Amino acid sequence: MSHVLDFVGSGDTVQVGARLLNKGGNLIVVGLFGGAAKLPTVTIPLKGISIIGNYLGTLQEFKVVFFFFFFFFFFFFFFFFLIYFIK
């Protein structure tokens, strides 16, 4: 794989993500679970991989996005149910 996106961010998922990468791949860690990853550091320059951390947003922004998607999917399935099952 050329890119791996880790939404958990634990030591185990970082290790798995690093193993999955091909030469020149990117491991992007956005999860905040924490922990320590044991990686053979020689593989980083030999494979030419990059490990990138990214964190963006606040708790308030997360709540807005979460409730938007929750209500969007609720209404989508509600209307789907009405259209499909009630004829």
Order of H and E elements:
EHEHEH
Instruction: State the name of the first-level CATH class of the largest domain.
Output: Alpha Beta
Radius of gyration: 19 Å
The CATH topology assignment of the largest domain is: Rossmann fold
The average pLDDT value, as a whole number, equals 88
> In percent terms, what proportion of residues is strand?
5-15%
Helix count equals 3
CATH level-4 homologous superfamily of the largest domain: NAD(P)-binding Rossmann-like Domain
Q: Return the domain count.
A: 2
Low-confidence stretches: none
CATH architecture of the largest domain: 3-Layer(aba) Sandwich
Question: Which range best describes the helical content: under 10%, 10-25%, 25-40%, 40-55%, 55-70% or over 70%?
Answer: 40-55%
N-to-C span: 47 Å
Strand order of the largest sheet: 1-2-3
Task: Tell how many strands the DSSP assignment holds.
Answer: 3
Global outline: elongated
Question: Strands, helices and their partners?
Answer:
Blueprint: E1 3-6, H1 11-20, E2 26-29, H2 43-47, E3 50-53, H3 59-85
Parallel strand pairs: 1-2, 2-3
Features:
alpha/beta; elongated; 87 residues; three-stranded parallel β-sheet; 3 helices; 2 domains; Rossmann fold
Summarize the structure.
The protein has 87 residues and is of the alpha/beta class. It is built from three helices and three strands; from the N terminus they run βαβαβα.
